[in-house]
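Researcher: I'm comparing several assemblies side by side, and this is the next one on my list. It has 448 residues spread over two chains. Same procedure as the others: predict the full complex and return the structure.
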Amino acid sequence: MIAIIDYGAGNTANVKNAFTRLGAETMVSSNPKLWEKADGLILPGVGSFGAAMQRIEQNSSELASLIKQKPFLGICLGMQLMFEKSEESQGVSGLGIINGSVKKFNGDLPVPHTGWNLVSISDATLLDGISDFYAYFVHSYYCEPADKRLTMATTNYGKKFPSIIARKNILLTQFHPEKSGESGLLLLKNFIKEVRK
Amino acid sequence: MWCKRIIPCLDVKYNRVVKGTNFLSLKDAGDPVELAKLYYQERADEIVFLDISASLENRKTMVDMVSAVAQEVFIPFTIGGGISSLADIEALLRAGADKVSLNSAAIANPKLIENAAREFGSQAVVIAMDAKRTEKGWTVYSKGGSLATGLDAMEWAEKAVSLGAGELLVTSIDRDGTKSGFDLELTAALSKLVSVPVIASGGAGKMRDFYDVFQQTKASAALAANLFHYGTLGIPELKKYLQENGVDIRV
């Protein structure tokens, strides 16, 4: 059983649909007791960094400790929340599980970065041999990890930014694998394999 | 490589795709879910559904359709037609739609854009605009292109974006159904004016039309309905052509 963490922001239905298609059982829950029972955790996310942190605040310590123990997938804002802070919400602390911060795009290209872009794999060790693919993005901010070695794939949008970050049991994607066609589903399939290990 | 998007549009009335289709491979070519699945398999980048029945009794049916589509299609999709309240928007997004497109209701009540963007984020709010040429520029029509609003297309676009629209879906009334190509001037002017992505619509008749709109304007996406439904042009064939001609595209 995989728990999709529901904190009242963002559409959990599509993440659930993708896992259902792949034959994995999920539950959408805002209850930390149920997260604890799950074999894997997913933090989806749409909305702003500050509002999301506010919503998960009362459960943030439980969440942070579970993220270190179980296979974990953070999607889009769910990736950004792993960092210490974001330019989107000054003065708000993130979960701080990954050292680094979240920055705003400030080039000539339209923001949010919306649509399909190439995910170039730089380190496939934690990605089960996936090769470069196109993925669907919707975001105005990108992550900058202090430790560059955590970046498994990059994408170019005026500048190169990390589109996949991974560390041990933690897998983070800036794009939406549940909306990235068959390639996105393949990534989720690999996550399910990790959960079942 | 940031890709240009190819978007098939399905006109849906009482849960049926309007206008016959030539997809013999489908069991039921009038079923929006079946057709959406086919476009998904053909690697469409996104799908737009326009509900042209737009009656209140039909809302529940649309929500059911959205949820059926969301279980089969793992690319973004937008739903539009007769959406006029935050409650409508919430129901459709919760059912699995990624974006809603607002047209007449946003013209009548621009605050709806602001409220929707605040509640659900700009990324979920598309403003659909039907524009027709005048001597001076383009004017916006509402109610499915039947009512001249007197709004200037450029001014309305800027206003919609300032209120929080995350994307503009711009249909040229002059070109719609003509197969004579997109209105390049309209698309160029709007896509230069606003900072959000512009989807060109109305007039696509051949592969070259898509190339032209991507080459000569800053449009992020191009939309067509009949061209794809009637099987006149396949999405894989179109994408291959665009890629061979140097357009950044996901093939």
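Model: For your comparison table: Chain A has one domain: 2-196.
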